[in-house]
Amino acid sequence: MSQVLRKLPLYKHPDVIVGVGAPDDCGVVRLTDDLALVSTVDVFTPVVDDPYDYGAIAAVNSLSDVYAMGARPVSALSIAGFPDFRLSLDVLAEVLRGMMDAAAACGVPVVGGHTVKNSEPLFGLAVNGVCHPDRLILKGGARVGDVLVLTKPLGVGVMTTALKNESLSAEGIRDVTASMRKANDRAAAVMVAHGASAATDITGFGLLGHLHEMVTAAGVVAELDWGAIPVHPEAVALARKGMFPGGALSNLEAYADHVRFAPTLADWQQLLLADPQTSGGLLVAFAPSRLEGALAAFREAGVPAAVVGRMVAGPGSATTGPATSAAATGAGAGAGAETWTETATATAPRIVVFAG
Question: 3-state DSSP call for residue 181?
Answer without folding.
Answer: helix
